[in-house]
Amino acid sequence: MLNEAVTQDKVTCTICAQVWPALAMRQHIGYHILHTRALLPSNPCGFCGGDAAQCRSWLDKQGTTVNAETRCVLLGDVAGEGKLNYNHASAKTPSAAAPCRNHLVACGNCQPEANQECAVFWSYNLRAHHESEHPSHPLPPVACVSQAERTCVKCVGGERKATVPEALKDVLVAAKEAAKEAAKAQLAQAPPGKRKRAGASS
Length: 202
What we know:
This protein is of the alpha+beta class. Helices cover 31% and strands 14% of the residues. The chain has helices at 25-35, 88-91, 123-133, 147-158, 169-189, 195-198, and strands spanning 10-12, 19-21, 57-62, 65-72, 77-78, 104-106, 120-122.
């Protein structure tokens, strides 16, 4: 499914015109979503920042394994293959080189239409969707982004640092702990029959 003709090692961000490695675009767009949201559409793609409706995303479930895939208009690829290198499991946990935790997640409150799967959103967009479409429901933990994560994402995705500086390592630890707590809370809220699957990924 990799289209070598349109996939590039580096791409120009359509939001700020900076040139970034394709592998780093999720970090960079994560910065824009968290810190320059006014420049983006209401539901931006996690890879290019364009309208996510144009970059089809879905969760491919194979037994207890969940593979997140997306077709990004700018990068012209399928996440999980080739240069996008999107790994659903690692995207959920911030690291020094990749603190952005923006990943695909199904909205548990949206009712799928006939013969359709549940609506899928990037986690950084889920709060806006939830407040607009499901204001009477509690905000899902996965939609919450800690200040620690925001700081780390700005450092790597906005300031182009290779990793979170030593001075921010404590902040990164706090971001990791916040991510773990959010994952636990999300698992606890899942229906009993779905709890095992909710934590499964590849």
